[in-house]
Amino acid sequence: MNQAFLVATAMSELARNALYHAGGGKAVIRCRTQPSAMIELEVCDRGPGIKDLEKAFSEGYSTRGTLGLGLPSVKRIMDRVMIENRPQGGVRVIAWKQLNC
Known about the structure:
The protein is α+β, with helices and mostly antiparallel strands. About 30% of the residues lie in helices and about 30% in strands.
């Protein structure tokens, strides 16, 4: 499948989560060339946070009655995902995808 399509899908899911669970947030896409070509996605919000970060990546886990496929799909699509509850409130997610150029 096309890398651009997959990365766009991951960003769409992260942005949707910020909107749905936190009322919005900030989304940034960065292109990195060092040490190799990659895309970095970062989404931050000021919502209530995620009580169980490990469970949030489990297929079918949802706190709002959805299918619970969002974060697990981001984890499958991207090469690396970091998620944290921020001390000042909200969630920060950074995900990286190595590019085949």
